[in-house]
Specification:
Blueprint: H1 2-26, E1 52-57, E2 61-63, E3 68-75, E4 79-83, E5 87-89, E6 94-99, E7 105-113, E8 116-119, E9 123-128, H2 151-158, E10 162-163, H3 176-188, E11 194-199, H4 206-226, E12 234-240, H5 251-257, E13 259-264
Parallel strand pairs: 2-9, 11-12
Antiparallel strand pairs: 1-3, 3-6, 4-5, 4-7, 7-8, 7-9, 10-13, 11-13
């Protein structure tokens, strides 16, 4: 009986060993795969465009004391500088600058941008010395002066008495042409200042005639003012019957005394 048990145990052990070997033989062995591909590099960044700059002048030869205008044009630039003596300029795309060199000078422009920098060709402005104007010839001797009447005589001959009707201070129609001629003379001689004297004939009381003479003088002043003669040039005074030009008791004498006369002020 012991021998049978021992053989049975060996058989069981052998069976288990075979089963174990069979299981091990059927289990697949994992084979490692290829390594993952590295990531693709990023595309290269596009290069910024290079700047450009040109410089010219509206005049390359000037006379001492004059100016010339520099004209620049740039692309792809964030700053533009003109040398010598000008410095940074705005706007950067294009513009002008005035220069006044005292001697021959060569100007250049530089443009700087994200794509680098660029320099223009030089522009030379020459400066010519100022010419000295020749002295003018001496003036000829003055021509002999043909002396005519002096200002006082011209005034007296032009500003003749203006006549009025009896007991009236209005301008008579037959006196208007005379007044127009006087106004023209006064406008042509703006420095002439004068007094208008109002007069009356002997008829009527003294106070009445003073008032009448004042009205006659004021009437002529208004007329001249309406013709463009400044009132500040005219003074008005009335003498009534105190300064007659004649003393006869005739209508002709009365008419001559009813007047405005004119006196030139110094």
């Amino acid at each position: 009986m012991k021998v049978l048990l021992k053989r049975f145990s060996v058989l069981i052990l052998l069976s288990l060993t075979l089963v174990s070997l069979a299981c091990r033989k059927n289990t697949p062995v994992a084979v490692p795969g290829p390594p993952p591909a590295p990531p693709a590099p990023p595309p290269p960044a596009a290069a910024a465009p290079a700047p450009t700059i040109t410089l010219r002048s509206d005049n390359t030869a000037i006379t001492a004391g004059q100016s010339a205008t520099l004209i620049y044009t740039a692309t792809n630039a964030t700053s533009v500088t003109i040398s010598p003596g000008v410095g940074a300029v705005q706007p950067t795309a294009n513009g002008t600058r005035q220069v006044s060199p005292t001697a021959a000078t060569t100007y250049t422009a530089e443009a700087i941008g994200p794509g680098g920098r660029a320099n223009s060709a030089g522009v030379t402005i020459t400066v010519n010395p100022a010419t000295v104007a020749a002295a003018p010839p001496p003036a000829p001797p003055p021509a002999p002066v043909n002396r005519g009447p002096d200002a006082a005589t011209i005034f007296r001959n032009t500003m003749t008495p203006v006549l009025f009707d009896y007991d009236k201070s209005t301008i008579r129609a037959d006196q208007e042409s005379k007044l127009l001629s006087m106004a023209s003379y006064l406008k042509q001689n703006a420095n002439v200042r004068f007094t208008i004297e109002g007069h009356a004939d002997e008829r009527g009381g003294q106070e009445y005639n003073i008032a009448l003479g004042d009205e006659r003088a004021a009437s002529v002043r208004r007329y001249f003012s309406g013709q463009g003669v400044a009132e500040s040039r005219m003074t008005v005074v009335s003498f009534g019957e105190e300064k007659p030009v004649c003393s006869e008791t005739t209508e002709d004498c009365y008419q001559r005394n009813r007047r405005d006369s004119f006196v030139l002020q110094p």
